[in-house]
C-alpha cells in the first residue's frame, strides 16, 4: 500500500449481504478489476443450496465517485438497492 494512499483513493466499494445476517463482506478498491475479483471470490464462498443463495444473498459494486452508482449486481438485487438522496 502506498504511504500517500488514502481511503478516498479507493473508488469502488463491494458489498455482499445476506437477508437476515446483514453485511457479510464490505471492502473498497482503487480499480474495478480488483473490486470485481473480490466480489466473485466472496460470492463463490457462499454456500450453494439449490438456488437459495440467489434469493437470500445480494452483492454489488458501487462507484463512490459517481454518487454510489451501482455498477454490478449478483443475486437478490433488493438487498443491495440503496435510496440515494
What keyword list fits this structure?
alpha+beta, 4 strands, 85 residues, four-stranded antiparallel β-sheet, globular, single chain
What does this structure look like?
The protein is an alpha+beta fold. Helices cover 22% and strands 34% of the residues. It contains two helices and four strands; from the N terminus they run ββααββ. The radius of gyration is 13 Å and the shape is globular. The model has no long low-confidence stretch (mean pLDDT 85).
Q: Biggest β-sheet, characterized?
A: 4 strands, antiparallel
Tally of DSSP helical segments: 2
Q: Unreliable stretches, pLDDT < 50, 5 or more residues?
A: none
Helix content: 10-25%
Q: Could you state the order of secondary-structure elements as H and E? A: EEHHEE
Radius of gyration of CA atoms, rounded to a whole number? 13 Å
Strand order of the largest sheet: 2-1-3-4
Given helix and strand content, the structural type is alpha+beta
How large is the share of residues in beta strands? 25-35%
User: What is the typical, i.e. mean, pLDDT?
Assistant: 85
Q: What sort of overall outline do the alpha carbons produce when their principal axes are compared?
A: globular
Name the quaternary structure: single chain
- Annotation, overall tally of beta strands: 4
| Termini separation | 33 Å
Amino acid at each position: 500500500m502506498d504511504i500517500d494512499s488514502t481511503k478516498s483513493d479507493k473508488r469502488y466499494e463491494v458489498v455482499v449481504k445476506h437477508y437476515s445476517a446483514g453485511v457479510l463482506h464490505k471492502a473498497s478498491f482503487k480499480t474495478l478489476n480488483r473490486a470485481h475479483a473480490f466480489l466473485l471470490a466472496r460470492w463463490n464462498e457462499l454456500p450453494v443450496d439449490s438456488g437459495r443463495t440467489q434469493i437470500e444473498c445480494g452483492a454489488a459494486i458501487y462507484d463512490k465517485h459517481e454518487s454510489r452508482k451501482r455498477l454490478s449486481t449478483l443475486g437478490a438485487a433488493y438487498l443491495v438497492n440503496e435510496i440515494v438522496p
